[in-house]
């Protein structure tokens, strides 16, 4: 796979020297390293790749997909994504703070302790993802996103509206909220009791 690694390095060098997008490339089963800065990627596919300390602040990604990739601690702060998909990727500790994502899907990914603070999520779906201790606090008010079948144990949603979110399909033990964020969220009866206790509400059975 040395040819693919060399191709990656050449693409980064060329795009850095002359402003241009890196387009229609496929990388498979490769360890990729190096900061990509504010480069733009279009129609690129990454399969079973390991990104070594990816630094991609303010980069742009359009019509790209990541399949079974390892992106631990990837730095995507203030980056822009449109029509991108992550499938069965490891995103633990990844930073999306301040990023803008449009029409994106995260499916069967692990993203524990990932940071999304102040991100703008426009039509972004999280499906069957593990997001324990993730920071989804203060998402931009115009965000439109959904979670289905996700593990949100200990996730931080302070100042992020959860209106319409199907939390009844998710694990929400130890969810971090102030209270108002839950207005309009859909929860199960058991979850409602747990959230009430979390917010300091005392529940008594009739006759107690």
Describe this structure in a few short sentences:
The chain has a single domain (2-198), classed as 3 Solenoid (Pectate Lyase C-like), CATH 2.160.20. The protein contains 2 helices and 13 strands.
Describe the model:
The structure is a single chain. The chain is of the alpha/beta class and 208 residues long. It has one domain (2-198): E3 ubiquitin-protein ligase SopA (Pectate Lyase C-like, 3 Solenoid), CATH 2.160.20.80. Helices cover 12% and strands 25% of the residues. It has two helices and 13 strands, in the order H-E-E-E-E-E-E-E-E-E-E-E-E-E-H. The chain has helices spanning 2-17, 189-198; strands spanning 21-23, 26-28, 31-33, 40-42, 45-47, 50-52, 60-62, 65-67, 80-82, 85-87, 100-107, 120-127, 144-148. The strands form two sheets. Strands 1, 2, 4, 5, 7, 8, 9, 10, 11, 12 and 13 form an eleven-stranded parallel beta sheet that branches. It has a two-stranded parallel ribbon with strand order 3-6. The radius of gyration is 19 Å and the shape is elongated. The model has no long low-confidence stretch (mean pLDDT 91).
